[in-house]
TrEMBL record:
Species of provenance: Candidatus Nomurabacteria bacterium CG1_02_47_685
Domain Exonuclease per the UniProt entry, residue ranges: 1-184
InterPro entries documented for this protein: Ribonucl_H, RNaseH-like_sf, RNaseH_sf, Rv2179c-like
Recorded GO MF terms: 3'-5' exonuclease activity; nucleic acid binding
Keyword hit for Transferase: no
Protein name, UniProt field: Exonuclease domain-containing protein
Keywords, comma-separated and alphabetical: Exonuclease, Hydrolase, Nuclease
Amino acid sequence: MIIIDVETSGLDPKKYSILSIGAVDFDVPDRSPFYRECQVWDGALVSKEALAVNGFTEAECFDPSRGLFEDSIRAFWHWVEQSNELTIAGQNTSFDRDFINDSFRRAGIDFQFAFRTIDLHSVCYAYHLKNEIPIPLKNGHSALSLDKILEFVGMETESRPHHALNGAKLETEAFSRLLRGRGFFDEYQQYEIPEYLK
């Protein structure tokens, strides 16, 4: 399982571009995580709202020193090829999958991640149901955002602005605590795992 997080220049992969990718191989804890930034693909739009979330500036979006789009996507594909299991996971995984699959196509890579993904929200929701823990609601819907899930597993909320590698690592840590009852990264050892997860 590969935990993935992307930061983008907007919400629609047909109009906007990936700006950075962070990924962790859940099955190989000793493997180095992947992180890469890139300029937007030629013709991509940039949304001020998206930049407010991820902290990139408009100038950085078009800066070739951040890495050419195709080169960064090919580097990510090379990292993915080294994985034994290509199921992707994360928070709101369909968003990341759609951007990555569109980016693979744009970079001429003949591969698409499957529609079957593992979503952190769904795993945490199921954990609540199984253990008869009330699900936090907002406007009648689940309010299990990444920050709420991180709090539930004993972590601090995600720092702002969002960062793709930080997001992928936090999501990996949350998956590990929910599914295995133990941490994944040594750097998060100071955050005690709640007894209800052990």
